[in-house]
Amino acid sequence: MRSSVSRWAVLALALGVIAGCADAADEGMPEEEAPDAADEQAVEEAPGTEEETATAEELGTEEETGEPGPYVVDIVSEGHDFQLPEEIPSGWVTFRYHNDSHETHFALLGDLAEGITAQDSREEVVPVFQEAMDLINDGDPEAGFAQFEEMPEWSEETVYIGGPGFVAPGGMAETTVYLEPGNYQVECYVKTDGVWHTDGMLVDLTVTEEESGAPEPDADFEVILTNEGLGIEGDVQSGEQTFAVEFAEQMLHGNALWHDVHVARIDGDSDLDELAAWMNWANPEGLEDPAPAEFIGGAQMMPEGSTAYVTVDLEPGEYAFIAEVDDPQDKGMLETVTVP
């Protein structure tokens, strides 16, 4: 289902979402209305090869247990790139994102409007975002946000379907989502020196009618996302843990994104205010590499009613579960957990 709500019009009004202007953002933006499908913008580039996909049969799970195992698609980044197959099956798909680069990245999946490709995003969306960010960084946020009036109409029809969350250099993030057949794109828009990583991290992905045959994963605990905040249900233990991310509600935030959840290791020296500010791309320092914490994965934004599964390796210590929205603390979308 496609949304008819213009997040770019909302964003153009929300001049106060830059760090330090949270109150102005709340006053300048109408009460966020939740359409039935998540929006945002994405873009893509060079696909990899089929050889990088491991099916459940290749993993040996079915042979060992007699039951179908996960269908795994490996994504690799060695710089500002995505290496992955051009086509994958529909159904439950587990994405293992290997960040072999020296920067923090993520992999956001977007179901594109009919007839739209990554090249359209590259030509019509990326330049708008970069010009806007350049103006914001130059101290003219009003002119920067006004740039979003130039967004193509078709960009409103992109539906975001999750994907691996932020992962630190050298790390691996694992996220499982259910995919319908269609034409998708994969993107990362972390910034380096004010320039979006979408200069190379923009990839087309076709999801075919053939089904993966993989089952829905089991979860050790749950993260519930509502318009009122983020809640964690169940015991969070050390070791390999899989948690379900339930998008019980969804809404548009002041940075034109829908809420999601990411996991970061923190310690006594971590500054949660700095981390919260970093999560807002509209802040000149937001999403600027390096990140202020070590991210280990998460689930990107999805439509209301969706569920994703995230597998993480939790060592004993402190962790932050946080959404990529403006003012996550004030919105109840930053929770800390102690893992015994």
Distance between the termini: 42 Å
Structural class: alpha+beta
What is the N-to-C succession of helices and strands? HHEHHEEEHHHEEEEEEEEEEHEEEE
- As for the CATH topology, it is Immunoglobulin-like
Radius of gyration, in Å, reads 19 Å
Share in helix: 10-25%
Q: Mind telling me which CATH architecture this is?
A: Sandwich
Describe this structure in words.
This protein is α+β, with helices and mostly antiparallel strands and 340 residues long. It has a single domain (7-339), classed as Immunoglobulin-like (Sandwich), CATH 2.60.40. It is 16% helix and 31% strand. The protein is built from eight helices and 18 strands. The protein has helices spanning 7-13, 22-28, 56-59, 61-65, 118-124, 126-137, 141-146, 272-278, and strands spanning 53-54, 72-77, 87-99, 108-111, 159-160, 172-179, 182-187, 191-192, 195-196, 202-211, 221-226, 229-233, 239-247, 261-266, 294-299, 307-314, 317-322, 334-339. The strands form three sheets. Strands 1, 2, 3, 4, 5, 6, 7, 10, 11, 12, 13 and 16 form a twelve-stranded mixed β-sheet that branches. Strands 15-14-17-18 form a four-stranded antiparallel β-sheet, with no helix packed on it. Strands 8-9 form a two-stranded antiparallel ribbon. The N and C termini lie far apart (42 Å). The model is unreliable at 1-5 and 15-61 (pLDDT under 50).
